[in-house]
From TrEMBL:
One GO term describing the cellular component: cytosol
Protein name: Helix-turn-helix domain containing protein, AraC type
Keyword field contains Lipid biosynthesis: no
Source species of the chain: Marinobacter santoriniensis NKSG1
Any one GO molecular function term: transcription cis-regulatory region binding
Amino acid sequence: MSNLTVSRHFVQAALVGAEAQGLDTRAMLRDAGISPDLLRIEMARVSSDQFSRLMQILWNRTGDEFMGMGPRKARTGTFATMGALVIDCPTLEAVYRRAYQFSRLFEPMVTMELEVGEETARLVLRIEGDIFDPSFFLRESILVIWHRLGSWLIGQPVELDCAEFDYSRPDHGDEYRHIFHCPLRFEARETALTFDKRFLSAPVIRDQPEMHQFLKTSPADLLSRPDESNTWTGRIRALIGRDFSRPLPDFESIAAELHTSPQTLRRRLKQENTSFQEIKDLLRRDMAIYYLSRQEWAINDIAAKVGFTEPSTFHRAFKKWTGVTPGAYREGERSSPDR
């Protein structure tokens, strides 16, 4: 089971281009196992599996990997072709340079350009022509896909020093903390990701069969399921686990388990834009949403499973997370076809 969830905002933002083309987006949601009624709840979230399915359905039905938001169509298979071209590259730097060469063959161009400085490297977003991207989803997706593809190819996360955006902080800007795990700058000159130059010399460790397997679910999986295994957030999530009915490890024992001091770990989490308390809260929230989607679980039992001794405390916490009670949330889920 996946224990990550995706904000309702991204579900709606992904569908903007398809809606503008008059496509039946409610049918797309239902086919992805997402109840359109659930999206009436302002703070609703869907599972990463559902979001991944929705993205694949969206690309197939629009026949466009830009989902109707780009300056032109990117026919289905464009990303797979780029993947096939970069798998033979020796290093991450070669990957980004070849991916840039490939994507600039299409006009108007939509790509990320690598700029290398003395100590840092930047991937800068380059888009020619007009785009229809009112919710910034296309631009966010390109940044995420290029960053996570590179991380997957070298088998370690490319730790970001900074993420910059040439637009004002959007209403969903808080979600960026969990997407990029680094300091954020809005109203910047360019939209770009900055990281330590040392990552560019990291060798590509994947091979053709792995790429073939990877492309069966990507780039949908890259957008819905970040590889957090080597971030401090991801390591802590893994150590906490999913069984909240037993006492959770405290911060000091987590730090010891990770061979670091509590002070250093606090500083690392601050750099990743989060805290130990927030990691625990978001894990509880995601687990609660998962169990609520399973009708066989009574709400009071779910409260115990996610670590609340009193159902009333769970109700209050869940309402804080999602804006509605567990019962109302489950009601919104109910019209989903695969429940």
